[in-house]
Structure formats: C-alpha cells, structure tokens
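Anyone up for a design puzzle?
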C-alpha cells in the first residue's frame, strides 16, 4: 500500500506518517520546503519521540520524499498510483495542493480502486473543502469513479521542533484519529490506530471546540501574562481559570448538541487540561496562537461555539474574553498577526466583525463581538 502525504512538517512526520507507517504503508512525503525534502529524501529513517507519562520512541522508515514545487509531475505520478493521499499543510493551503491531486485523479488508470483522499487539518470538514477545490478541475463523473473523500479529526499535540533534532519529532504520548467510515463502503482501510466512525460530527466538534478552543485560550491569555510555554501558562491561576471557563461553555454546548454523557465529557476535558500541562512538551503561545485571522473566523474554535451558545440564550462570556485576548496577539513573524493588527486599525469594529468573524449586522453575537473589538481599540 502506498500513501502520498502533503506536508512533511510536525503533524505530517509525527502523526500521519507514523500511523500510516505502523499500518504498513509506504509513504511518499510531498512538500515545498526544499531543504526538508532533500534531507528526508537522503534519510533512511527518522524517529518519533513520544513524551509524557508513557514515553516511547518509534522509528519510521520505508518512505520517499518529493518536492511538490519543483517536481509536480513526479508527485502527480505517485498520487495516480497511490492507495491514499493525505494532507497536513494548513486549511488555507489546500487550494494549492488540490490541482496536483486533480491531475492525478484524471491520470489514474480505470482498473485501480478509487484514490482515498483525506485532509488532516484542524478545520471542520477540511476534506470537503479539498474536494471542492479538486472538483474545479475534474468532472463529476470522473471524480465519483476515481476518488473517495473522507473527513477526519486528528488530535496530537506536536510542537515546533528544535532545529538540532533534524527529522526527528518530539510529540505528546496522546493521539486520536477519527475518520468517517461511510465513504469507504465495504473497503474501510486497515489502520489499527484509526477510529473509523459512521458520524464524524460529534468527534470533530468535540475535538475542535475542546482541544483547540482550550488550547488557543491558553495561548492568547498566557502570552498576555508573559508565559513562554503552554505548561507555564497553565501554572498561572488566572489563565487556567480562563481555560476552565471557556471549556465549561463549550462543554455545555457540546453536551446539549451531541448528547455526550456529562461524566465522560468531563473526563475528556480533564485529559485535555493534563495534555496542555505536559511539562515535557516545549510548546509555545506563538505556535498555538498562530494564524489568528483563521482562528477568529466564523466556523472556527471561538465564534462557532459562541454563536451556538448565544443562539440558545447563553452569553458566551469566556469565549468573548478569549477573542479579546486573541485580538492582542502580536507576533511579528506571523503574517496573520501582522495583518490582524493592520485590520484592527484600518477597519471599524463593525467591519472587522463582518469581514474577519463572518457575522452580519443583527445576527446573534454580532453586537457582543463588536463590543469585544471596540474594547481592544
Ligand atoms: N502540530 C499539531 O499539534 C497539529 C495537530 C493536529 C492538527 N494539526 C494540523 O495539521 C496541519 C499542519 O500543521 P503542522 O503543525 O504540522 O504545521 P507545519 O508547519 O509543521 O507543517 C506544514 C508543512 O506543510 C508544508 N507546506 C506548506 N505549503 C505547502 C504546499 N503548497 N505543498 C506541500 N506542502 C506544503 C510546509 O512546508 C510544512 O512542512 C494544520 O492544519 C494543523 O492545524 C496540527
Ligand atoms: O494547528 P492550529 O493552528 O489550528 O492550532 C494550534 C494547536 O491548537 C493545534 O495544532 C493542536 O496542537 C492540535 O490540534 C492538537 O491536536
């Protein structure tokens, strides 16, 4: 079995690559970072160090690496004959990898089973978004015959890596990968570490609105308090209280919407808090808070649950305070942070809320969001 994986970064090598390798796949990493790809192409293996209560080191081998910027044809050829193509490039990058996948689907031999396409990004239904980009270049009949699209929820904290580590990746010991089973019909892939589920929505929403909402809240409030790592931020009483408050709000929303058992959900939340506090994981507010414009958008970790709560008559006060902290995320190396600060000074609070958060005048939460932006001006 062969998988082509776009994005040989942290989650690519430390999660998708590892799990597919353990399931027996040969992996072809495709990335635009020339140095990374050259190093991977020259290596026989790399190691994944799981740190936490149950440390373990895995060796990943049986991979190749191709530069998807300078060798598009090579990547297309690999995808055309692969069983699976996965991505971990960032939700906003999917439109750049889609044309290569589209060309590969068109070139795929009729006698091969459909290509399995999975976007492993932190976003609701990222595979649907990738499919829409691919569909621009492939007719409906070919797409239906030659490809299967499955949404996924991926969960493992992989911090930015020390440059001295080379290809090796340090990751937390926890992981969870849920993939919707329906699109595969009777041919669900055999991947021991994956949880195939009939209905992904509860899993993806629980993950994004617990792990990622809590994580981002910790990063933004923690950075304002001067914390250099996420574990340090968790040790600041006021910051930890904001994380608890935000997760109490999203827990209420998730339990009401998906019918989770309250005790099971409380245990899920406690596990997240423990994961955020992992002292062996050198994670930073800059990484976890990255791309604040994406994180403040309508379908993302703050505004989506806040709208859901406000629609049912609950004031999402902690989520709005987290939004207020996010609006102050000032990291010169992060283009979205720079752009967000420019937009905050060039747009009215009302226009910022419509353009960045996707809320319309008169819509639930609109007025509170405008007040939150004004409070930071
Ligand atoms: N790191 C985590 O803890 C974590 C956990 C779950 C999900 N994710 C999600 O996984 C995705 C990747 O995150 P990451 O932390 O691994 O980031 P990363 O920056 O470490 O890796 C992204 C990789 O994508 C590559 N890339 C960028 N543009 C590309 C293109 N056009 N074609 C091919 N490759 C391209 C980059 O060069 C980089 O190597 C994001 O959507 C993120 O939300 C991350
Ligand atoms: O990747 P982002 O920017 O959407 O979010 C930053 C972190 O919260 C995220 O990468 C987590 O570490 C990950 O989602 C844990 O599964």
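Challenge accepted. My sequence:
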């Amino acid at each position: 079995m062969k998988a082509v994986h776009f994005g040989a970064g942290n989650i690519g090598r430390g999660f998708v690559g590892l799990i597919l390798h353990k399931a027996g796949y040969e992996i072809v990493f495709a990335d635009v970072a020339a140095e990374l790809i050259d190093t991977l192409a020259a290596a026989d293996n790399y190691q994944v160090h799981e740190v936490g209560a149950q440390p373990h080191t895995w060796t990943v081998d049986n991979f190749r690496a191709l530069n998807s910027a300078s060798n598009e044809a090579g990547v297309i050829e690999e995808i055309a004959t692969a069983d699976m193509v996965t991505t971990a490039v960032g939700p906003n990058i999917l439109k750049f990898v889609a044309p290569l996948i589209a060309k590969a689907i068109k070139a795929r031999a009729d006698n091969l089973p459909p290509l399995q396409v999975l976007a492993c990004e932190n976003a609701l239904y990222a595979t649907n978004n990738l499919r829409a980009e691919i569909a621009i270049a492939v007719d409906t009949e070919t797409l239906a015959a030659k490809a299967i699209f499955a949404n996924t929820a991926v969960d493992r904290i992989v911090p930015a890596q020390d440059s001295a580590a080379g290809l090796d990746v340090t990751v937390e010991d926890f992981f969870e990968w849920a993939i919707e089973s329906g699109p595969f019909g009777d041919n669900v892939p055999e991947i021991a570490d994956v949880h195939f589920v009939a209905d992904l929505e509860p899993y993806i929403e629980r993950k994004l609105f617990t792990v990622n909402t809590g994580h981002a809240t910790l990063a933004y409030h923690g950075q304002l308090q001067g914390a250099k790592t996420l574990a340090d931020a968790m040790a600041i009483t006021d910051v930890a209280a904001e994380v608890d408050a935000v997760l109490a709000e999203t827990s209420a929303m998730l339990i009401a919407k998906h019918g989770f058992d309250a005790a099971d959900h409380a245990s899920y939340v406690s596990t997240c808090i423990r994961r955020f506090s992992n002292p062996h994981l050198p994670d930073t507010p800059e990484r976890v808070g990255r791309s604040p414009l994406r994180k403040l958008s309508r379908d993302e970790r703050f505004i989506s649950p806040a709208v859901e709560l406000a629609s049912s008559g609950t004031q999402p006060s902690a989520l709005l305070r987290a939004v207020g902290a996010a609006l102050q995320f000032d990291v010169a190396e992060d283009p979205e942070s720079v752009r967000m600060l420019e937009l905050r000074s060039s747009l009215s609070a009302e226009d910022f809320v419509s353009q960045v958060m996707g809320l319309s005048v008169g819509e639930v939460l609109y007025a509170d969001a405008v007040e939150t932006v004004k409070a930071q001006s």
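A detail worth pointing out: The chain has a mean pLDDT of 97.
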